[in-house]
Amino acid sequence: MKHIVITIGREYGSGGRLVAKKLSEELGITFYDKELISAVAKKTGFSENFIRDTEHQRPTNSFLFDLYTVVQTPSVPDQVFIAQSRVIKEAAAKESCVIVGRCADYILRDDPSLLRVFVHAPLEERVRRVREEYGVQEPNLEAYVLRQDKARASYYNYFANGRWGQSREYDLCVNSHMGIDAAVSVIRAAAHATAGE
Predict the structure, then answer these.
(1) Model-level pTM greater than 0.90?
(2) Can you spell out the DSSP letters for 131-166?
(3) At a CB cut-off of 8 Å and minimum separation 6, what does 117 contact?
(4) Could you report the per-residue pLDDT of 40-76, keeping only the tens digit for each?
(5) Rounded distance, CA 84 to CA 146, Å?
(6) Which CATH number covers residue 183?
(7) Inside any domain, residue 3
(8) What CA–CA distance (Å, rounded) separates 190 from 172?
(9) Would you say residue 1 lies in a domain?
(10) Rounded to 10 degrees, what is the CA torsion of 164, 36, 13, 170?
(11) What confidence tens digit (pLDDT) does each residue in 102-132 have?
(12) Average per-residue pLDDT in the chain?
């Protein structure tokens, strides 16, 4: 396959990470998710747990607003994002890959080999997956799932110049209700088309 970079944004509990992992295996290309955290930790000197925690903080304003209006040193979450952006760009330049989350679709928006995908699913399916497959034990799972989505949207909307989960931000939106294998097949077909094969 020609050089291709596939970014996967996903609703919490949609199985987007499973789709991304299986897609990378079927295409025989590198999969990046938590591996990015390790790479950023090496670049910044921050611990992996600290980086994970900063990804879950709910920022205010916007990254661009903060960069243009604040003359002092960028905040720690901003520093982590800048380092993460460098790592993502290096990975995408080096090899074909599938990258999960972390605003990769926005970071790589000018890459001609980019396919931006968003995976979603009905709320009841996501709640079931979170309970049965992720083993989350929360008194109100539906509210928990929606909070996770809100946190992802907040993170994305802070750093990216777009809106998380809105179809016009992506090349392809896939409902995993069709099944993980079917979702992978749809994305694989789009990847081949994007690569010009």
Answers:
(1) no
(2) HHTS----S-HHHHHHHHHHHHHHHHHHHSSS-TT-
(3) 6, 7, 8, 9, 170, 171, 172, 173, 174, 187, 190
(4) 777 777 777 777 777 655 555 554 444 444 445 677 7
(5) 26
(6) 3.40.50.300
(7) no
(8) 8
(9) no
(10) 30
(11) 999 999 999 999 999 999 999 999 999 999 9
(12) 87
**Alpha-carbon gap, residue 53 to 59, rounded angstroms:** 12
Number of domains in the chain: 1
DSSP string, 30-57: EEESHHHHHHHHHHH---HHHHHHHHTS
pLDDT, position 71: 47
Q: Which amino acid is at 148?
A: Q
**By residue range, what is the domain housing residue 53?**
10-194
Q: Per the domain annotation, does 62 fall within a domain?
A: yes
Q: Is residue 4 part of a domain?
A: no
**Both structure tokens of 61:** 């304003």
